[in-house]
Structures
1.
Amino acid sequence: MTDTKDLGKLRIEIDSLDKQILELISRRANCAQQVATVKREADETAAFYRPEREAQVLRRIKEANPGPLDDEEMARLFREIMSACLALEERQTIAYFGPEGTFTQAAALKHFGHSVHTKPVSAISEVFREVESRVCDFGVVPIENSTEGVVNHTLDSFLNSPLKICGEVEMRIHQHLLAKQPELEKLKRIYSHPQSLAQCREWLDAHLPGVERIHAASNADAARRAAEEEGSGAIAGEVAAEL
């Protein structure tokens, strides 16, 4: 009986804290709207998103974090709050080297939060053109990966563009096996980008040695095909699983 009473008290306290959090987030959002008004009155072309300001805020949050949530998790929560508040000022459009469901899109969402509009484009050079022409506010392109080193196309594009790097996102790549059916023995084929298949070769050899491996244009395309075809699976990132 005592445990039940204690649990009830804790739930009441959580409900009270949730209400306070809601009120504080709403106050922060109201402040963001006031910031937008002040900026527009001072300069109609004022930039609403300032990467250095966001980095400063997140750094301060990490330094002040008392736990038990770790610094990265706390920063992720605050980034989403900041993203939602910024969308009240002006919703940002972010070009990225697509298609949807790729790790580049995941990097864009990690850096800017989920309240932005992401726009996939088919080439790295197109990302630069979208931002240079001001169709998009920012662009996300791959610079380097641990298996293939630097991405030369991206570096070459910077040499021929007035755009500058204003932020960096480090992504730990986690591949997932996606399928409509949970039983591995029912899988007849696996779709994925060639690089992902190569990265997961040892696991596939050990757990799905007789399953056909089929190259896909992207992991997002692989996820779509796996969702449409019985007996098919895909190796892709978490973002592709949400499509």
Note: The CA atoms of residues 60 and 75 lie 10 Å apart.
2.
Amino acid sequence: MTTTSSIPGGRPAAGHTRLFFWEEAVQDWQLARKEGRRPEFSEYVARNLRALREGVSREAGTDPSMRFVHRVRLHDDGFDRLPDRYIAEHHTLTLFGLHQHAASEPVHQPGVGLGTACLLLRRSEALTEAAVERRLIAVATAQDLHELVQHLQRLVPLLRQAGIGLDYTRLFRELSGWDGSDRNRVLRSWGLQYTDPGTAASKGGKTAGQERAPYWVTFDPRSPDAGAELAALRSGTGREPGTVAAMWPFHRTRMASAWRDKGSLTRDLAAEHTALTLFARHQQTHDRQMHVAGNSPGTAAGLLARKAAAGSDGKATTTALERRFGVLLTSADADELAMHLRSFVPLLNQAGAGLDYNLLRIALRTWDDPRRPDAATGFRQRWDRDFHITASS
């Protein structure tokens, strides 16, 4: 891939295009192999790699030895601040220098995003799963570019030790947009890459993809980690799906790897995200499973109504509950349905009434899907019937 030199505003500058230094390094290595020589970097590349490592702790633009490896041009435009792309390239170069140091092959691997690299690191068993996730979450929750780079500087040597490469052209683009509006898409792509069941394992080239049951199905209330896991899921309430790093280990959405790589926000991902946050709120304080197969929202609301009818002010409470459930049924789209469910689930939590989260995810996925125009009507009819049957039984 080539890059066009640019000015701070992001407009292409007149002139030629040139490969990034990390791309040049790969070509340099491949040329030696093609010519039948021992695969190694030329003196030009080796010298500049040393310069990159020396620039790790330096501010962008302050190390003269790195001047000739930059491909983002600087222009005398009267601004004191360096362009964001230049700063991002500086950090990408120094990370590449750290990663490439003592590596047996070029570490710039096109197509290997950060999430994929961490997934391969986890599967390499060089670190425990918890250790990898802790480092990836630290990277993903960085508040600014400076903090992000600090975490990456700790992660990159681990990738090198495990023989795992990284797409540095992609990383450059991600660093360039970290402090802007592109961060959520970047985060989602990292999370989706990391949870991709179809990514090839680092040993043997076989895929490790297996259909995994949704988190709420396998959740064990007696697990010592249960409280922390539920807290992580609750932290995603109201957040954009796929951008909450603490939730990444609990996603099971199946998605084409190409879509994961782009950080696509799909209906499946949005539905699972909402279902996970609702389940976490529902399960809170309970030592038995709140996911109960077959319990539709109508059945659950009917259980509440039946319990309320036995109280002293049963009729008024039942009427209020029926009205509230009716509002849920009239939700115009999946977002409105999720909003009403967020106020409905705490009532189920208090009453200890379970809910079928597999069914709920399907409803959230298809409620306003234009390809299934009758889905919402079908759910409304079934849930309304379930409510009246359960409430009157």
Note: The CA atoms of residues 370 and 376 lie 11 Å apart.
